[in-house]
Amino acid sequence: MNIKANLSILDIIGHLLIWVVLSIITFGIALFFFPYSFSRFVINRTSVVDLVTGAERKMVCDINIFSNIGHIILWMIISILTVGLGYIFYFYRVWNYALNNSRIQ
């Protein structure tokens, strides 16, 4: 099995522009929602390829940005109390959560 990501430069630029604008408009609060969107963006454009048969199966991330509002608020408080250092750990925890809530079609 191999993992294959299908990310185009235009998709990446579009995704980043949306989040930069949202971050500016919300004075940075959108950055706490960004890791969920980022992980879902990458996982939904990834597939698993069987090396023997060549069959390609798409990965699907089943997380919803707004269903984890309690988690976001908790990490927002942790990040503020740690003067931003908590955000680094938050990003990894979101990836862990996203991968645990993904499936292969």
TrEMBL record:
Stretches that traverse the bilayer: 12-34, 72-92
Alphabetic keyword roster: Membrane, Transmembrane, Transmembrane helix
Entry annotated with the keyword Membrane: yes
Protein name: DUF898 family protein
Organism: Vreelandella andesensis
